[in-house]
What does this fold into?
Amino acid sequence: MISELFGWLFARLPFGDGLRGLVSPRTVRSLKRGLNRNALAKVGIVVVVIVLLVAVFAPLVAPDKPGTQNLEEARLPPLGFTKATVQEVPVQENGSVVFEDGEILTENRTVYENATIAHPLGTDGNGRDILSRLIYGARVSLLVGFLGTALAMFVGVSVGLVAGYYRGKVDDVLMRSADVMLAFPSIVLAIALIGVLGDSLEQSIPDPFVQSGLSEAVRSAIGLPTGMPETTTLPGTIIVVVALVNWVWFARVARGEALSLREQSYVKAARALGASDAKILARHVLPNAITPILVLGTIQIAAIILLESALSFLGFSSANVSWGFDIALGRQYQSTAWWIAAMPGLAIVITVVGLNLVGDWLRDALDPGIEGEGGV
Amino acid sequence: MSRESPGERDVTPNAGRDSTRERDASPRAHRDTGHERDRLRVENLTTRFFTEEGQVNAVESVSFDVREDEILGIVGESGSGKSVTALSAIDLIESPGRVTDGEVWLREPDLAEEFRERTPDAVDGDFVDLRRLPKGVRRSLRGPKFSMIFQDPMSSFNPSLTVGEQIAEAVEVQRRASANPRSTRSRTQGYGLGKLIVDTLVPGREYTSDASRERAIELLEQVGIPDPVERADEYPHQFSGGMLQRAMVAQALAGEPDVLFADEPTTALDVTIQAQILDLLRDIQRDRGMSVVLITHDLGVIARMCDRVGVMYAGEVVERGSLADVFEQPTHPYTQGLLGSIPDVEDPAPRLQPIEGNVPNLVDSEMPDRCYFADRCPKAMEACLERPAERPVDGDPDHTARCVLADGEYDPATALPDDYFEEDPEATDAPAEGGAADD
It folds into this structure.
């Protein structure tokens, strides 16, 4: 059933035409073969696709607004759990408190709070629905993950290809500056860069589902609370910072590929036919170097999501809904309401594992060393 | 001249060539006594590689000329500098190598006219010196004027593009180059990186034009690829080696080059396919009146294909002349040794006579200041302890040898003893590392 679904998907993906020149039919074949052999890869793809869909359609699927506070319902446990707290309450007799030696007499009583279907993953310290916050937090994490990786890939691959293709002094200057970036721990470097950039790049982007009124209509039809936030935060600073921290990996991989590809006869042939350096890089070097770069990309998305969470946890993100930020909020309730921190942590783990499974699948399917068939 | 329309050109394949002939008919004065049918004159070309082991003199003061409508063979052992010579001539030497000296004169009257005022040094009659032209102009000449076929067809095509597409792109580039021969900007107008990126990412868009793709299919047909329409849409790994080499020839022909360098075009192929490719090359050369520089280590290929021959040893052309001159009256002992080391079907000698020893290491510090071949030469004399100049054999300027025997006789009285060069162990025991610079 799932294999048929993937077969159907593959037949419709733009590999055949749109990416011609970037991904060869042989690559598509080995991708398919890798998928058939690797059940975990399917799990990874399913996880990543679900997280992506949830993030995109957040205003339609979130059970509640991510920011609605309700202290009456604070710290409700997730479904299947009951929270038992021991509270000190005044002993009451006939509706009035009892005094003993001039003080109010109290007793210890266990209070049970049950999970409610309205908050399947419980609520946080301010009574906000955790599931809704996770769904909106997925937007921030994935935006940072994908855009940050795309930016890092663009910068790193450009630098790496130029360095590897021209070698010599160009290579020395570019790669030594990359080494300088590597010399700093990534968190320290990121914090320093945030200090420089401030929140000048933060953007609020309108949410098309809310703006068009679609989400309100759907939500009121099925009886969910309306009034979803009209904008989503685009954490521009964080995106630029994680890209600046992580481009080095792409540069190193792209440089290595360019160094070997520039010696290929077809590059020489292209030069003998009068092709310019830019044309050779775009047409002959990049398409044949793309495989390891894509593999690195999937793994970097995961790493960047982790970095974003760490930065949010430390309070360096201006996004007020984010997995890392929510973990930080839950930290103070660690002993009484573990789910406030654990749920966003679980979301990070599941997403990162899913992305790594996809990355492993790409690497295994495309690495020429493993099957003896080239990924190019 | 019907440069723009491929269809028309095919009906009259010699159109371009005829107009060249007309120009030739007009009398013209040259500074030196070059042959009037010369298309390319290489003079004192010197290429060095600056490696960590030291300076490698891969090509040492090489001179040769390529005439129109002929095949010039360059033959020599591995590491003798054949390939580097060709790459130097078309300006494809890369760091750590550099062409340090010499001139590459190409007959190109239009270009000569344009640069006559601006850089008089770079112009001589109808000839321009490529090494003195600006870089952009040199690049614009690659393709429409020169082209090159490489040794290994399997790695000479980009595995991620179809064969037809790669040839079509070469056609497209050449077409633009000949439409705007002098301006890099107008050549790439509407055809730059932006278009490449858009056409790669947007489904259903093609980077090359329909006309170029049709021309690519015509070219594939001309080089004898069956079902060219279907084959054009296949990827390089779906082709056999011989078919790919044919496709490589088609790609090299995309710009209708005047001079085609073929660097060991048949080395990677089996014998029957070799013969087919060589026949194809010769047919195409004759049809188009092209000049071909054929680089090989195979004397049989030279004998079968070439009009004139240059023999290379240790980065130098040691002997050159017409095929008959070199093969029937070899003057340089190295040429004699080469010819003596191939079996003759008609006169099977009891033993072949190999040349003793190896090609010397071409690292500058280890190059002796004498004839480079003297240590292996059976006719080494005291006169060989000086570097010999290239001199005409028996006064014939078309047959030259870099040897004292060219205009002298072997004198046993001054012959060096057999163990003369063995006194200095470093000179003879040094491994032949010069090959690294060649391939």
Observations:
- The first strand of chain B starts at residue 38 and ends at 51.
- DSSP finds 17 helices and 13 strands in chain B.
- Residues 311-438 of chain B form a domain with the Rossmann fold fold (CATH 3.40.50.300).
